[in-house]
């Protein structure tokens, strides 16, 4: 991206069902582009802006979206497998039925995102901003959340098993019905300031 903004702008394009495997886009602005049912393996997007883009039912495998910005995007039923989204920001996006399998989402900003019902497994979200995230009934298992911002999240009914909860203050979170494993329960008790004494 140059000093005068994105190097190129793509607007109102219909990329329905397109195969974007191996594509490399840098500093490109995509506005109101339809990526419904698009497929890609090994595509790279660096410093791109996605505004009003529809990712419905799209599938991304081993793709990179680094330092990208997503604004008012719809990601209904989108799937990300082993993708890298380091440093990307999501603002006012819809995530209904999104599935994430592994991958590196470190330093991602998902502040106030509605992640209710999403499924994220085995991904790295180190130092991600998840402040006030709404993840009711979400599956968030095996996640590396070390150093993540987890202020005032709604995790009611979420499956959190195997995720790193050391950064979570249970006094500032909604956790009714959330599923955790015994090790996580001990971490949450310690985060309350209690001392776990062996029987």
Automatic annotation (TrEMBL):
Highest taxon, organism lineage: Bacteria
Matching PANTHER family: BTB_POZ DOMAIN-CONTAINING PROTEIN KCTD9
Protein name per the record: Pentapeptide repeat protein
């Amino acid at each position: 991206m140059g000093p005068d903004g994105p190097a190129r702008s793509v607007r109102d394009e219909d990329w329905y069902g397109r195969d974007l495997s191996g594509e490399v886009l840098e500093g490109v602005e995509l506005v109101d582009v339809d990526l419904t049912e698009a497929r890609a393996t090994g595509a790279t997007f660096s410093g791109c802006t996605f505004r009003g883009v529809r990712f419905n039912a799209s599938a991304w495998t081993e793709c990179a979206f680094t330092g990208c910005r997503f604004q008012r995007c719809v990601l209904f039923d989108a799937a990300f497998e082993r993708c890298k989204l380091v440093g990307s920001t999501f603002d006012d996006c819809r995530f209904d039925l999104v599935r994430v399998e592994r991958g590196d989402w470190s330093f991602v900003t998902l502040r106030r995102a509605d992640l209710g019902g999403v499924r994220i497994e085995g991904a790295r979200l180190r130092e991600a901003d998840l402040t006030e995230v709404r993840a009711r009934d979400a599956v968030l298992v095996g996640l590396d959340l070390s150093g993540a911002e987890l202020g005032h999240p709604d995790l009611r009914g979420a499956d959190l098993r195997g995720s790193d909860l050391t950064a979570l203050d249970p006094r500032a979170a909604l956790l009714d019905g959330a599923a955790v494993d015994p090790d996580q329960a001990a971490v949450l008790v310690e985060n309350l300031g209690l001392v776990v004494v062996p029987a």
